[in-house]
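Case 429 in the screening queue. Each case pairs one protein sequence with one candidate compound; here the compound is adenosine monophosphate. For every case the pipeline is the same: read the inputs, emit a complex structure as tokens, and attach any notable structural observations.

Predict complex for case 429.
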Amino acid sequence: MPKSYSSPRGIKDILAPSSRDRRNLISAFEKEAALAGYKEIVLPVFEEFGVFARVGESTEIVQKQMYDFYDKDERHMVLRPESTAGVMRAYIQHRPTTPWKVWYEGAHFRYEKPQAGRFRQFHQLGVEVLGTSDLAADVEVIALGWRFLDAAGTNPKLLVNSLGDVKSRSEYTKDLEKYFKGHIKGLSEQSQQTLKLNPLRVLDSKDQQDFPIIEQAPMLSDFLSQEETEHFDGVCQGLSDLGIAFTADPRLVRGLDYYTRTAFEYESQNLESSQSAVGGGGRYDGLSEDLGGPACAGVGFAIGTDRTMLAMQESPSAVSDLDVFIADVAGGRAAMLIAEELRSAGISTDRAFENRSLKAQMKLADRSGAQLALIIGEDELAADSVSLIELRRKDSQPEKSRQDLIPRNQLLDEIQKRLQKTGKNENKA
Ligand code: AMP
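Case 429 output:
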């Protein structure tokens, strides 16, 4: 017996109806982004290693989680762990006019320990605005993500902070390192390791043992220049003007090294606190230069599609998209022709295969969720007609007595009329 396979560990198949809900979520995001003037960018799924190395040499993403490999020409490649660096690489390569506003959606890869809401292949949707340091862009981006998550029913909570620029952050990091070193015995083993790589990331510890020490740690806000403080205050003011509730969280640091000034995170209040982050982002004004490009400011976010779906409170409705199901017990040719005709007219249509019994085919029709069933037997063929049943009609009449015999040449009109009556196909004429 040949070996049988499962999907790789930490990677899941997405089947219907989840796949449809996911598609709807992406469409909703696309609409939201288009309303604000963002255009889609489709990026490569893998890039040269160097593109992502700057994502954060001190972060877990680069240290441990890269799905990297050497191709047949010995080039070092990575399956993308995120998309901001890819967008920046594309900007440097193509030099579009700025401000360049793009959105994306797609699979991303991180070699993480799989657990609820954490996968090795996951999906992110996001936006980036390149070429402006105007704080209005920060506000626009944050508001866009918030509106999307709110409309999706995730009950979002917004946290914002300022991470300063390279200078203020490095002064702060030095101070923080000194402080944590003074308390090293009290820190968890993990945080002691993190401290060696990046003291800032200790603030992000999820280990309760670290909390009292983190609580007393110096604050980045005390190290910000006046300009940075004004930028942050402006962002907060903009969010307030738009009526978006937020919490200024001085301990918020992000898992990626390239952020400057604004950093933010969306949590869902519907999720367990350890996996409650549904998305996040910030400003990354130095990233372009780090990737060998010209000076180019940028701000954006990434939202996890899988996590967002877990956070959506209303379980998506089980409504079927299907209009018509055809049961053909007269050989199947009529089903083939009618299905093609209805589909060409924009009516979603499915059919049974393998010439099974009428009972079996009607069971499939019922399960399909279709509004209408068509039955084609020898009698119908002889009369050049088709029997039609409204499957979703709420009355107690047995199905048999609800069948109407429709002449073949009136079938399309009749189906359109019936679908309009059910209110499902108002747009289809
Ligand atoms: P990040 O790029 O790390 O800021 O992540 C942004 C969002 O992507 C997170 O808030 C999650 O919703 C989602 N995300 C990140 N990593 C994973 C993962 N391994 N599995 C599922 N979702 C993830």
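Case 429 observations:
- Residues 155 and 269 are 6 Å apart (CA to CA).
- Residues 18-35 form the longest helix (18 residues).
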